[in-house]
Amino acid sequence: MNDRPEPSEKRQKICLQVATNVTEQKHNVTREIRGRNLGLCRGFRGCTVWLTGLSGAGKTTIAFELEAYLVSRGIPAYGLDGDNIRTGLNKNLGFTPPDREENIRRVGEVAKLFADSGVVAICSFVSPFTYDRKMARKIHEDSDLKFYEIFVNTPLSVCESRDVKGLYKKAREGAIEGFTGITQEYEEPTDPELIVSTDGFTVKESTQSVIDLLETEGIIPKTLKDVGRLPELFVKPEHKDALIHEAKSLLSLSITTVDVQWVQILAEGWAYPLKGFMREEEYLQTLHFNSILSHDGASRHNQSIPIVLPLSNEAKERLADQSSLALTYNNKLVAILRKPEFYHHRKEERVCRQFGTNHPDHPYIKMILESGDYLVGGNLEVLERIQWQDGLDEYRLTPNELRKKFREMNADAVFAFQLRNPIHNGHALLMQDTKRQLLERGFEKPVLLLHPLGGWTKDDDVPLPIRMAQHQAVLDSGVLKREDTVLAIFPSPMMYAGPTEVQWHAKARMNAGANFYIVGRDPAGMPHPNKQMYHDGNLYDGTHGSRVLKLAQGLDNLEILPFRVAAYDRSLACMAFFEPKRKENFEFISGTKMRTLAKTGSNPPIGFMEPKAWQILAEYYKSVVQN
């Protein structure tokens, strides 16, 4: 007779052994320090979310959706899945009651360590016994850590109909003993922090109830909550007359066309969470960190470019002691600026940090250098929607209007394409290819936000009305499908600030509901005013914009899609993605070359641009030459 204990007996004996010569070692790093330095959200958020329920209830699906949500918002989180744990740490445990107890004990201890380090540990385990779950809770409570028991209450019939792993079938056939719900009882939680249903609900809907709980508990800062409707800075219609009446008693500051464009940006929510022109603290954060701290101090919002209001020394002296200012444009009231804060406009510091140069021939830098020596910040109350009466106002959709439009189109992915130039078939190829990739990833209704910049641009750029007519011709041709494209105008001025400005373009589209962003070569760039400065004659490296975007803080809800370079393929007589191995077959057609073709009455190669779109562009270039 062999007296050697069976493996399961041996495991039980080992589990009963208690180490007596062990002393807990205290960390040098406190939870408070971890909270200040771990992740993008300040504050200690370590806790354990324990998802329990039958096999197939949806525990792991919710756990991984929640993990992705938290990580995308800068909150460290990690999903501890039952199957994953049993392939490693607990691979020596079976499914007997003692082994199940030890499985949960080990997981509880591991989750406690994760939580103590500042991570949100998301545990998805059947954990059928009340005693085991209480043990896991006590492990956390003894260490003063939060523990949230989530009962994923999916009926047995639904779980069995899903049977993703085929386990229910095997259990019914007797191939698996002690299977919870079939041959072993599941003890339902009597007092969980939350009960979640997955039957008849989407993954996002089921996960949202867990997110709501964590927001209520302060694990997820309220500033990171997905904003259904962005706050706008327009006064309510019923208060409009009162604002006009008040403005008559206020000293006024006349603002420029570009200033009004920034008022529009702020009022419509593109720069959320800004509530007006930047005060000095917001300005400093923008210059030095390309981001601003949220109102509760828990996180940072990307804000790479200053949105400021310059004024002269004389205006500052005249307005310095005022509690509110009336902002006017062409002698008409635009907005009231509350509690103005005046500070020095250190132009050299601003332009060097924002543009990487202070060359006076850069068009936007020139505008800054010619502006006032002071800046004034403060909250805005804007009288009404900004209208430019140029026949294009219908395309100036606000972020909230765009979000609503995407919902009406049943979009499950929105990919934005920023442009300030005419569209050729290479652009169209890129957008078509992006849609293909999203469909292959499982999205059913990807929608393109075709979003030309509509604010101030330098003199030699193609004017907005010409670009919009050209874009419409591209849509009319069917190269881009109207049913899954939204053509709208982004009202921001163009600064030509390279990688710094690219972050602003992406952040604004994120506020408008985009979750994918196509970034091209040398976005927001321009030739260097001194063309001899660099070997390529450009102010910025053509690859830096896309590289910076992938690293930028506060753009976590946006996936950056790389721009594949397209050129005219002579061998195929169409635009195609550039292949270095066949570089002799490709021709890059620049804006300069297009202007030359139009000037001489020539056409570009067939397949470069839709004929009607080219005709609109050619007529514009001819008019410029004639003038």
What does this structure look like?
The chain is α/β, with parallel strands linked by helices. The protein contains 22 helices and 21 strands. Strand 17, helix 20 (544-551) and strand 18 (559-562) form a beta-alpha-beta unit. Helix 3 (59-72) crosses helix 9 (203-216) and helix 21 crosses helix 22. It is globular, with a radius of gyration of 30 Å. It is found in: Plastid, Chloroplast. Belongs to the sulfate adenylyltransferase family. In the C-terminal section; belongs to the sulfate adenylyltransferase family.
How far the N terminus sits from the C terminus, by CA atoms, comes to 108 Å
pLDDT averaged residue by residue: 89
* Net shape: globular
Low-confidence stretches: 1-24
Structural class: alpha/beta
How much helix, percentage-wise, in residues? 25-40%
Overall number of strands: 21
Family: Belongs to the sulfate adenylyltransferase family. In the C-terminal section; belongs to the sulfate adenylyltransferase family.
Main location: plastid
Keywords: ATP-binding, Chloroplast, Kinase, Nucleotide-binding, Nucleotidyltransferase, Plastid, Transferase, Transit peptide
Organism: Glossina fuscipes
In short:
With 627 residues, the protein is an alpha/beta fold. Helix content is 37%, strand content 16%.
Secondary structure topology:
Blueprint: H1 7-16, H2 31-37, E1 47-52, H3 59-72, E2 77-81, H4 82-86, H5 97-116, E3 120-124, H6 130-141, E4 146-152, H7 156-162, H8 167-172, E5 194-196, H9 203-216, H10 240-247, E6 252-254, H11 257-268, E7 276-277, H12 280-289, E8 291-293, E9 300-302, E10 309-311, H13 313-319, E11 324-329, E12 332-344, H14 347-355, H15 363-369, E13 374-382, H16 399-408, E14 413-419, H17 425-440, E15 446-452, H18 464-477, E16 485-487, H19 498-511, E17 516-519, H20 544-551, E18 559-562, E19 566-569, E20 574-577, E21 586-587, H21 591-599, H22 611-626
Parallel strand pairs: 1-3, 1-4, 2-3, 4-5, 6-11, 14-15, 14-17, 15-16, 17-18
Antiparallel strand pairs: 7-13, 8-9, 10-13, 11-12, 12-13, 19-20, 19-21
Helix pairs in contact: 3-9, 5-6, 18-22, 19-20, 21-22
